[in-house]
C-alpha cells in the first residue's frame, strides 16, 4: 500500500527560553487508495494519543481530507510511460 505522510510545518512557542503550552504540526498525506488514508489517519490518532499519554499530556488530531486518493487516467498514463535505451520502462 503506497502512501506518503509529510510533516511540513511545526509551530511551538515564541521565544528560546520558555517551554510552549502547545505545539502544532501540519502536513499532508498522499496515497493511491482511500483505504491508505484511513490507515494513516487511524495510526496518527493512536500514535498521538499514546505519546501524549506517556507524558501525562493530551493530544488532539484534526485530520482534513483535502486531497483525495490519486488515480491516474489510463490513456494519458500509457502515453507518459516510455522505454529507455536499455529496455526499461521510465515515466517521462
Provide the descriptors you would attach to this structure in a database record.
92 residues, alpha+beta, two-stranded antiparallel ribbon
Tally of distinct domains = 1
Please count the beta strands (DSSP E, at least 2 residues each).
Answer: 4
Helical stretch count?
A: 2
Helix-strand pattern, N to C? EEHHEE
Strand order of the largest sheet: 1-2
Separation, N- and C-terminal Cα atoms? 23 Å
Q: Spans with pLDDT under 50 lasting ≥5 residues?
A: none
List the helices and strands and how they pair.
Elements: E1 3-11, E2 24-31, H1 34-54, H2 74-80, E3 81-83, E4 89-91
Antiparallel strand pairs: 1-2, 3-4
Task: Summarize the structure in words.
- With 92 residues, the protein is α+β, with helices and mostly antiparallel strands.
- 3% of the residues are buried.
- A two-stranded antiparallel ribbon has the order 1-2. It has a two-stranded antiparallel ribbon with strand order 3-4.
- The protein has helices at residues 34-54, 74-80, and strands spanning 3-11, 24-31, 81-83, 89-91.
- The model has no long low-confidence stretch (mean pLDDT 85).
Produce a short descriptive summary.
This protein is of the alpha+beta class. The protein is 30% helix and 25% strand. The strands form two sheets. It has a two-stranded antiparallel ribbon.
